[in-house]
Specification:
The complex is a heterotetramer, with two copies of chain A and two copies of chain B.
Chain A (H helix, E strand, L loop, with lengths): L6 H11 L6 E4 L3 H11 L6 E4 L3 E2 L13 H5 L3 E2 L2 H10 L5 E4 L3 E2 L5 E2 L2 E3 L4 E4 L6 H7 L2 E5 L25 H4 L7 E5 L3 E5 L6 E6 L5 H6 L6 E8 L5 H18 L10
Helix pairs in contact in A: 1-2, 2-8
Chain B lengths: L2 E2 L2 H8 L5 E4 L8 H9 L5 E5 L4 H8 L3 E6 L11 H9 L6 E4 L2 H12 L4 E4 L7 H4 L4 E4 L6 E6 L5 E10 L4 E3 L6 H7 L2 E10 L9 E3 L6 E4 L17 H11 L2 H13 L5 H5 L1 H4 L3
Parallel strand pairs in B: 1-13, 2-3, 2-9, 3-4, 4-5, 9-11, 11-13
Antiparallel strand pairs in B: 6-8, 7-8, 9-10, 10-12
Helix pairs in contact in B: 1-2, 3-4, 5-7
The chains are: A alpha/beta, B alpha/beta.
Chain lengths: 264, 284, 284, 264
């Protein structure tokens, strides 16, 4: 155990713990990628990590800057074309966990990465859904990880890029989905799981030192807490060292100065 | 039948104002040199498509060449948003940009359908997703055996597809290795395909089931070493990550962007790409 | 997760009476040893499927194990007709055989749809072809964008798929090279896949984009050298063409067929396949 | 020119002459395969031969016994999976010539390779259509080659495996087809082309020494002859030598005695 860690590190490590050795995980870039690789480098060495660039069973030594970095391919069991990735591997039901981030999230796990504001006259045009709409519907279950902010965790998202539990209850089944949808949310403050009936995200565990007020202050909806909110175990020395080594290797690899002159 | 041409001639012979164009690549093998030549030749009213429009789409759009963009994820990969795309969508600068937005699954299936000569792609998608409400090209069909409602989108059939590949043999057969993206489909879906390559070799020296585009599927092949910079070409040079990070600041400001484009694109010859990747070759 | 098993255990653990089964292969890598083990274990009421049912389907059907066959071309490749299949269809010997007949395009698309988790495959096919009149599983859908009528067939989702491949690594990842047929799709479409391989190696020693089935897509792997004989395994041994020619005479006569099956299948161990290809290895 | 040739050889060589250097030809086994490879070894060295096993641009030194022989793959520019073959290459409109044989053929180029007799109670169960139904509809045009017999060239085929011109005229267009369909029939006696309007096969050329009576005697429908029926040029010495060498190499390769014991 270590007491010297950031909320970000706690978030990534808590997320990594949710992954199992036999999971097949479709990995989003950013926090999901770090969590998945920490899992692979600690308790889940055999986990299969898939990036939407077509790399299956990849084991990068540094975190990729993009979903198509060369090392993902070089270390993969196989690299397939993108149409095959979406048809045979995602739509084919081979992915057990889809791991997503979000720009905006609501309490039912619906995600917006499309626009802030109106779709036709957006205040901020975000990158868009990419693979997420079908990751959200075709993966066995969905884990979401994001830092808590009032702008990010909102009562009503501006656009439903990826469907979570809709308005809760059996909304997924009504749309014909047979997958579980969001079953886990890991923020920098807490671990959340959907209520079995309403599907509203409920805090089941808070990270060491975090209070209910902290969680509510950075969340745009009225937070539900479980009857017995646990304390998330602090990162172990191994988890923390693994994550920090990974980040250090990544920083060194990505920030080598450019000498190309094109941007001079 | 593939002709070996300079990138100048290949662009001039195959693209015209108002065409629909794909510059495909999935982080790997982005056809930067081809896009810069298109920008230099000053085409107008293009409909551009790509699953992952990135810097070159920021450049094409910022230079006012694009009427419409069909896409599924518009970002500076690993860095953030595309500033010129945002400026066009949010502020109509330099003019309004029509967007047709899809998911990756839809775009990948739509190129596949284009390559397969079908009018539409059918897949399980857009369940509960709001894009289906803002994009009239997202429809559905009913499976005649199970009654399941499946998503349907029109096939993508660009007038011209540009890609960058590792190498061609002397007959014009082209090899792609590593992260393949949707390039094979984008080439086979297109009316005309223009491919820049790192080199031409006597023998592709590859395996039986490699991703090869036969010469008779290609309109023109252009030898442009470094033509994917700042993206990478597996086996040739690494990704120039810093360049992507620096782009964010360049693209954030209209004047800075225009000055950069003038110096590094409008006044630069295609041969400059070989120079840009020189320092990235050692480690590749 | 792939288990390394003997072919006896792999068949016994994964197949049951009444299952739907694919033994896929396209001239190359036909899973003869797996089919012979299935015959030895005496399964009944199987629904068998394959694009190109050949000698092993003649054998399965002649031995009375098959209720229904789904196929697109039933021939002894390079030789002619399948005598046991004919006897079953024309004379109901040893009993009646239900057939569901498709074109290759339909079967290939149907396996693809199975691998892709879709309920049906959509393609341009069967135009003017009379099969659409005798097969109730050939339907159509209308493209919602162009109004074109396209063919639709149900996805193929076998309970068990058997294939033969060149090699597996020690984790159970399997490599297929050369003529790939529809094996990857047939494996991914199946509930359970059993794969015989020529050998297990430390490292597949292949390229980035090779056709590999990850270990977690496979139920069981069985090392059966020569397991494709008399078909071939690229890189290991050649096709035993004479054996295909000789089969025509064996299968032409019921008694001769039964005697041959008794001697060469029912009373033969799976290990015999290694012996059968010994003389074919030198030139491969 | 040579006078010493068989009708079979004349058929194959006449068929080979119809193929051009820039054709992309989807090759059926048997007579089509021989014709395509003679073309490749004589006047059309750059022709692209595709077999439905997925081999693209293949150049075998012997004729394959099956559509999936190893040499097809070893000599190909690329070998793709079978679903891709049918989707991108055939359905995608990349094939200029589909070259088919037939068990039964009618005068409008409709082909039966399914059953002789009733479909549900067949007299002879033939192998079936394989790739032919879609080769017939998706290839730019169709060449057919077969030996003339009264059993094979019939007034009404028992089953329409592959659609030619239907009942003639614009039947193809009515079905939504944009390809030309059968444009050439080469038998062991003659070269036939469809009438531009009725689409009925019409003899445009007879092989050396063949009479109209010969043609009619082995054809089950009343044969139409063109106003000026030409004489097919006899095989050249090179054509004949190429074909015979190919057949000799093929025979040697395929008839090596089996020593496996399995069929002993």
């Amino acid at each position: 155990m270590s007491n010297d860690f950031t909320p970000d590190e706690m978030m990534t490590i808590a997320a990594s713990r949710a992954l199992k050795n036999d999971d097949v995980c479709f990995v989003g870039i950013g926090a999901p990628s770090a969590a998945c690789n920490v899992a692979r480098l600690t308790h889940a060495p055999e986990i299969t990590l898939i990036y939407e660039s077509g790399t299956i069973g990849t084991a990068p030594s540094v975190l990729p800057l993009s979903i198509g970095d060369g090392e993902l391919c070089e270390t993969a069991v196989s690299t397939v074309a993108v149409p095959e990735m979406f048809r045979y591997w995602l739509q084919g039901g081979r992915v057990t966990i889809g791991f997503l981030g979000a720009a905006q999230l609501d309490k039912f796990g619906n995600i917006n990465t499309t626009v802030i504001g109106d779709y036709d006259r957006p205040k901020i045009r975000l990158p868009g859904g990419g693979g997420a709409p079908e990751i959200a519907s075709s993966s066995g279950e969905i884990y979401i990880t994001m830092k808590q902010t009032l702008r990010g965790m909102v009562d009503k998202i501006d656009f439903v890029t990826s469907f979570g539990h809709g308005t809760g209850g059996d909304d997924r089944q009504k749309l014909g989905m047979t997958t579980l949808g969001p079953t886990l949310l890991i923020t920098d403050l807490a671990v959340w799981r959907p209520d079995p009936v309403t599907k509203e995200f409920t805090v089941v565990s808070m990270h060491p030192g975090v209070t209910k007020d902290n969680v509510q202050a950075t969340c745009g909806w009225t937070v539900k807490f479980a009857d017995n909110v646990e304390v998330t175990p602090a990162p172990s020395v191994l988890e923390l060292k693994t994550l920090r080594d990974l980040k250090a290797r990544t920083k060194a690899a990505h920030e080598a100065p450019s000498a190309s002159g094109a941007n001079a | 039948m593939a002709k070996f041409l300079s990138i100048r001639d290949a662009v001039a012979n195959n693209l015209k104002h108002g065409d629909s164009v794909a510059f495909e690549g999935f982080t790997h093998l982005i056809p930067h040199a081809a896009a810069h030549e298109v920008i230099r030749q000053g085409f107008k009213d293009l409909t551009v498509m790509r699953m992952t429009p990135d810097i070159i789409y920021d450049q094409l759009i910022g230079m006012g060449m694009v009427k419409k963009m069909i896409f599924s994820f518009a970002g500076n990969p690993g860095v953030g948003l595309l500033r010129r795309v945002r400026d066009a969508v949010e502020n109509q600068w330099p003019h309004a940009l029509e967007v047709e937005e899809h998911s990756h699954a839809a775009m990948a299936n739509a190129y596949e359908a284009g390559a397969a000569g079908l009018p539409c792609a059918v897949f399980r998608g857009y369940l509960g997703a709001e894009l289906a409400k803002v994009n009239a090209n997202i429809k559905s069909i009913i499976c005649p055996f199970t009654g399941e409602k499946l998503a349907a989108v029109p096939a993508l059939r660009p007038d011209v597809t540009f890609i960058h590949a590792q190498k061609a043999d002397r007959k014009g057969n082209v090899l792609i290795e590593g992260i393949l993206g949707v390039q094979k489909e984008a080439v086979l879906a297109a009316k005309r395909a223009v491919i820049t390559v790192e080199e031409v070799v006597d023998d592709l020296d590859t395996h039986t089931n490699a991703c090869i585009l036969p010469h008779w599927t290609i309109a023109a092949i252009c030898v442009v070493p470094g033509g994917a910079h700042p993206s990478y070409a597996s086996g040739y040079y690494d990704r120039d990550n810093v360049n992507y990070i620096e782009w964010d600041a360049i693209a954030a400001d209209r004047e800075k962007f225009l000055a950069w484009m003038d110096k590094h694109v409008l006044k630069a010859p295609p041969e400059i790409f070989a120079e840009r990747v020189r320092h990235l070759r050692a480690s590749a």
